[in-house]
Automatic annotation (TrEMBL):
This is Thioesterase. The keyword Hydrolase applies. Belongs to the thioesterase family. One of its GO terms (molecular function) is hydrolase activity. InterPro entries: AB_hydrolase_fold, TEII, TesA-like, Thioesterase. SUPFAM superfamilies: alpha/beta-Hydrolases. Residues 8-238 form the Thioesterase TesA-like domain. One of its GO terms (biological process) is lipid biosynthetic process. Keywords: Hydrolase. Gene3D superfamilies: alpha/beta hydrolase (3.40.50.1820). It comes from Cupriavidus pauculus.
């Protein structure tokens, strides 16, 4: 019997671990086994939201990674297979965690979605005004947030400070000047994601292991409508270490 791979999931800016609450019901089964899942979804919560709402928000990318590294290493068991998944800001956090753990307990794979590769990021995206009106305008432009929530002052009073802190953390991010990862790295992009576009393809240069880029219909938040296929695809990629590069090498 194969042990399931724990998929540690990191959310996009402004979101919490609750983003992944519904993923478990879509988990694919291990091929040829009873219905044990090939993946065990384990969301990582960021400070200042969800179960950690009483903690202060973090506006520094490095400090946020310190926090997440501590939280993750406390839960990893020796020899336990795991992978990392992150969407948007979560992709950058997952990438940094993979680098930090590469010599101690490397992930079996890194999965990133809706994020430009580090070398192709546009830092100016997070350099603009971060007042409430500007953040609301950005949320409307990106989509993914129901209009009734955007028009709810009480909900926005909770959401906007979190998004502002996350944007400041993203603005403080600096790409690593180190060797690429060695684990498998698979990227997923939305065909209509104007915030990322073709910059998703740059992830193929971030690892010397197997890489691929897969496109889905939708914009920046395409992940929400693609969960069943994403989980099944990640399970297959984890089971097959012979996946060839889907994009021409660097």
């Amino acid at each position: 019997m194969h042990d399931p791979v724990t998929l540690w999931c990191l959310p996009n800016a402004g979101a919490s671990a609750a983003l992944y609450a519904g993923w478990r019901r879509h988990l694919p089964a291990v091929a040829g086994q009873p219905p044990e899942p090939a993946l065990r979804v384990a969301p990582l919560e960021l400070p200042g939201r969800g179960a950690r709402a009483a903690e202060p928000l973090c506006e520094d990318f490095g400090a946020l990674c310190d926090d997440l590294e501590h939280a993750l290493t406390r839960q990893l068991l020796p020899g336990q297979p795991y992978a990392l998944f992150g969407h948007s800001m979560g992709a950058l956090l997952a990438h940094e965690l993979a680098h930090r753990l590469r010599d101690r307990h490397p992930p079996r794979a890194l999965f990133v979605a809706g994020a430009a590769a580090p070398a192709l990021r546009d830092p100016s995206r997070f350099a603009g005004p971060l007042d409430d009106a500007s953040l609301l305008a950005q949320m409307r432009a990106l989509g993914g947030t129901p209009r009734e929530l955007l028009d709810d002052p009480e909900m926005m009073a909770i959401a906007l400070p979190i998004l502002r802190a996350d944007y400041r953390a993203c603005a403080s991010y600096r790409p690593r000047a180190t060797a690429p990862l060695a684990c498998a790295l698979h990227a997923f992009g939305g065909r209509d994601d104007r915030a990322v576009g073709q910059a998703i393809t740059g992830w193929r240069c971030e690892s010397t292991g197997p890489t691929s880029v897969t496109w889905y219909d939708g914009g920046h938040f395409f992940v929400r409508d693609a969960v069943p296929d994403l989980l099944a695809r990640m399970a297959r990629l984890l089971a097959d270490s012979r996946v060839p590069d889907a994009v021409a090498p660097c």
